[in-house]
Amino acid sequence: MNQRATFGLIGAGGISQSQHLPSLTQARNVYLKTVCDLKADLLALAQRDYGIPQVTQNHKELLADPEIQGVVIATRADSHVSLAIEALQAGKHVYVEKPLGETVEECHRVLPVQKKSGRILAVGHNRRLAPAYQLLRKAILAHGGAKNIHYRISDNYYVWGKSYGPGQRILHEVCHIFDLLRYLVGSEVTSVHCVDSRPDDDLITLKFESGCVASIMSSGYVTQDMPKESIDVVMELGAATVVDFVELRTFGLDDFEPVYRFAGRWHPQHDMMHRYLFEKEGATALMDLRRIFYEKKRRLEALEQSGQQSPERRELEQYVRTQAPNPSYMENKGWLEAIEHFADCILDGGPCQLAGVEDSTKAAMLVQTAIRSRSSGQVVEVGIG
Ligand SMILES: NC(=O)c1ccc[n+]([C@@H]2O[C@H](COP(=O)([O-])OP(=O)(O)OC[C@H]3O[C@@H](n4cnc5c(N)ncnc54)[C@H](O)[C@@H]3O)[C@@H](O)[C@H]2O)c1
């Protein structure tokens, strides 16, 4: 039996350098044969750092290779739908980064093609497969379902000067949480209410068919010393919380341990300190490492502003750019697990836990509904208007 599925990767930019290239080359069941990007320098990097056998600047060449079974598409959102359709029509199984499409209408174009192709289309809502969230889901299923949830997803877009513009954070970040909450609750959202205090500081409440209610705090203004994400879930009786994928605590769930800790994300270009510390010390280690990173980065910025060259500056540059991973990527958010599961589905045909076209279309519908609610100030029924 073939133990490895042969893959191609289209788009070797930021997320591929930090996640897909390490995952695809480390996965137990993947052989990454070809990488495609429009930029020759990124292809040279992929060959140098990961020994990729074949590179091309033309995705049609990659899709024409009959050996390639699975394609990961990690270009920007505006080309996801067209490339996914082309890949499905070429007979490939597709793992496409989120969001599948920028609108519901765009997502609708994919379903008939995917059905006709008989191939898998999975969308990169990797959080579903994060080990901490897999265990959380197990606890929810064993304890009468989720009744009340609070999710915080916060980042420092404005410190980076990286705002996408009002509403775009909902499309690019909160879309993950819409998908995750549907997966954890196992029910559909019926209504959405979104209020904001300023652009990219939103509070979104959701009601589910099951009766569960959820709130999502999304902020683009926190600093990197704060854990990026956390979730609190109240079940029939008892509760669980997860801090940034590294620590799950349970309350009143007698068949679960009170605390579980999860190793951090492995990356070949960074030291592994965080990986082992998270496994051993959980959220405490995460907070400390985030604080250290934040303080060193601020000190580096001050030295850069002063224009001063010094051994301290060189040491800090080395730390911030190479030794430490981006603090938002130290945690295990399920990237490797998602790719390995996708390859298992290709090889063995088992049921796919990843978001499919319909899930992703529902995430796009929730994005549109939240943006409409924020403009009108009203609670908006999903799918109406
Ligand atoms: N799952 C996650 O948590 C997560 C995190 C970050 C980004 N993303 C998603 O990943 C996607 C990529 O983001 P990024 O930050 O890596 O973008 P990026 O711009 O850094 O990289 C995109 C790359 O695609 C290449 N490209 C574009 N069109 C191409 C084509 N036709 N053929 C070959 N290459 C092509 C570009 O040259 C570029 O190098 C986005 O959709 C983003 O939303 C997901």
Keywords summarizing the entry:
14 helices, Rossmann fold, binds nicotinamide-adenine-dinucleotide, nine-stranded mixed beta sheet, six-stranded parallel beta sheet, 2 domains, Dihydrodipicolinate Reductase, domain 2, alpha/beta, 385 residues
The parts where pLDDT drops under 50 for at least 5 residues are none
For this structure, the CATH topology of the largest domain is: Dihydrodipicolinate Reductase, domain 2
Count of distinct strands:
15
Overall shape: it is: globular
SSE-based structural type: alpha/beta
- Which sequence of SSEs, written as H and E, runs from N to C? EHEHEHEHEHHEHEHHEEEEEEEHHHHHE
Q: What does this molecule look like?
A:
With 385 residues, this protein is an alpha/beta fold. 43% of the residues lie in helices and 22% in strands. It has 14 helices and 15 strands. The strands form two sheets. The chain has a nine-stranded mixed beta sheet with strand order 14-13-12-11-7-10-9-8-15. Strands 3-2-1-4-5-6 form a six-stranded parallel beta sheet, with helices on both faces. Strand 2, helix 2 (40-50) and strand 3 form a beta-alpha-beta unit. It is globular and about 55 Å long. The mean pLDDT is 93. The chain binds nicotinamide-adenine-dinucleotide. Nicotinamide-adenine-dinucleotide binds next to helix 1.
